[in-house]
Design a protein that fits this description.
Elements lengths: L1 H18 L11 H15 E2 L4 E2 L10 E2 L11 E2 L2 H20 L5 H21 L17 H20 L5 H16 L40 E2 H15 L19 H19 L11 E2 L10 H18 L2 H17 L1 E3 L12 E3 L10 H15 L6 H13 L24 H4 L1 H8 L10 E2 L10 E2 L5 E2 L5 E5 L2 E5 L1
Parallel strand pairs: 3-4, 9-13
Antiparallel strand pairs: 1-2, 5-6, 7-8, 10-11, 10-12, 12-13
Helix pairs in contact: 2-14, 3-4, 3-5, 3-14, 5-6, 5-7, 7-8, 7-9, 9-10, 9-11, 11-14
């Protein structure tokens, strides 16, 4: 009996310990610190001669495709083509933040604009002038999701150019061309496109790749359909829906280079519904599978799949106002918080117990997943008003900030391991901290979507996302005085 009592007491103590609330962290970094971290990332990894980002800190340049230091290759490896889109996103986010921060100086805004333009032109030049029909395996395009990440980033660049009052149509043009190349395939390459059209006997969704690269075979429904092409496609459709003008003629050619506003929204809803049905768990709400090969979902947790599911859900919520999308986004974030973080202990670098820090994924290029997650958690926290997740993001930033290499001002995606001047840091993991910092300002000096009940404005009036003045608002997102507002 005494032994049983002791056992019960031990169980009770363990349970109570697990229920103790985490200690609140002080967030000691400032907005100036955040800008310094982003500048350090760019300065460390950007190759000013070849004008794209290096794979890691051991590369003397970024001249060609390669895995870099992890394969003992120090010959001048560029970061992966799709990850370059994430780094361009960071430049776009930096410019947007400068525009929306009332404390920004004209010099800071001009510098951010030049950075975004410079990264764009450098990447375009390096990657075959954004010829999405060129499948050269060194610096061309040979996987659908590689292209779609750029579709999303280019659309966001166009959106920011509208906020700046000077729309740069090239961003939109390349965004739509890249989208259509993925959706319809390429006459030059010979693939039949990523879209598994039910009208052609497929079961829906988006294929991840075409094979062989230079002489593709027609797709079959057993081809790999991944979360990392399906949810980014939804994000691209939603973003383009908000940017293209109404009243476009429906294209009738076999290989269009643009689509209509109605098409983008219709396909966003269709692909989202298919992907949620095939990739999302009923047993563990919010969990996203990596993909399917014609059968059931293949379960493996990846932060970028969670992030794009959250982003796709948020964007559809902002467009439609349907609460189910918002609930899905929250479930995606909650799954990460519960299952894809390490809970800190007193033995961790900061000695603070109970903080949930994002786990670093260690496969090739996987360090960039945290940057993608940051992109879409910003949508959930600020644009969708779910600010109960903000302290979690700021805690992660604090850990990364305090464990960084202070000499180079960089950190890997493993925020729980102190980074030193000798640590080889890949640009993939190195993007995590600056991406989070750009999305979550220390003092919240950012433009947050405001919910308004009408279109009355005492400022400069309302504009659509493609820059058109409106006298009357319907449900949707508009720009007022350089900031997004939502009319429900």
């Amino acid at each position: 009996m005494r032994k049983l009592t002791k056992t019960l007491l031990l169980i009770l103590l363990c349970f109570c310990a697990s229920q103790v609330s985490a200690v609140e962290m002080d967030h000691t970094f400032t907005n100036a610190d955040e800008w310094a971290i982003y500048e350090a990332f760019h300065n460390v990894f950007w190759d000013g001669t070849n004008r794209n980002y290096k794979a890691d800190t051991k590369q003397p340049s970024a001249s060609h495709r390669g895995n870099g230091a992890r394969d003992n290759d120090y010959s001048g490896c560029s970061a992966a083509i799709w990850c370059q889109a994430i780094y361009f996103d960071m430049a776009v986010n930096a410019y947007k933040r400068r525009l929306l921060d009332p404390n920004s100086t004209s010099t800071e805004i001009r510098k951010a604009k030049n950075r975004m333009s410079g990264v764009y032109s450098g990447e375009k030049n390096h990657y075959v002038n954004f010829d999405f029909d060129n499948c050269n395996t060194n610096n061309g395009w040979f996987v659908y999701d590689d292209i779609m990440w750029w579709t999303c980033a280019l659309a966001r660049a166009y959106e920011v150019s509208i906020l700046a009052g000077s729309p740069e149509n090239a961003y939109l043009d390349y965004s739509e061309k890249s989208f259509c190349r993925v959706w319809y395939g390429s006459q030059k390459v010979g693939d039949d496109g990523s879209y598994a059209d039910p009208a052609d006997g497929f079961t829906g969704g988006m294929f991840w790749e075409w094979q062989p690269i230079d002489k593709p075979n027609p797709h079959t429904d057993n081809g790999f359909k991944s979360a990392c092409i399906n949810f980014p496609t939804v994000i691209a459709c939603c973003t383009l829906y908000g940017l293209v003008p109404e009243g476009r003629e429906v294209p009738t050619v076999e290989y269009p280079t643009y689509q209509t506003k109605e098409f983008y929204l219709e396909k966003a809803k269709e692909i989202y519904a298919w992907a949620k049905a095939h990739f999302c768990s009923d047993t563990f709400p919010g969990r996203v599978a990596d993909g399917i090969h014609g059968g059931g979902p293949e379960w493996s947790n990846h932060l970028y799949n969670q992030g794009t599911y959250i982003g796709a859900s948020c964007l559809l919520y902002l467009i439609t106002g349907e609460e189910e999308y918002l609930q899905n986004a929250r479930e995606g974030a909650d799954y990460v918080k519960k299952n894809m973080c390490k809970i800190t202990s007193s033995s961790d670098p900061l000695g603070v117990r109970g903080i949930k820090i994002l786990k670093q994924e260690t496969g090739y290029e996987q360090g960039v997943y945290s940057a993608i997650f940051a992109q879409y958690m910003k949508l959930l926290v600020y644009d969708c008003g779910q600010d109960d997740y903000k302290s979690w993001m700021l805690d992660n930033i604090q850990y990364g900030w305090q464990t960084r290499d202070t000499e180079r001002n960089i950190q890997d995606a493993d925020f729980l391991t102190p980074c030193t001047a000798e640590t080889v840091v890949e640009s993939y993991g190195g993007s995590a901290l600056p991406a989070l910092m750009l999305m979550f300002p220390a003092e919240d000096a950012t433009g947050i979507v405001t919910v308004k009940t009408d279109c009355s404005s005492k400022k400069k009036g309302f504009y659509t996302l493609d820059g058109k003045a409106v006298a009357e608002c319907k449900k949707g997102i508009y720009i007022e005085d350089g900031k997004k507002v939502m009319v429900p």
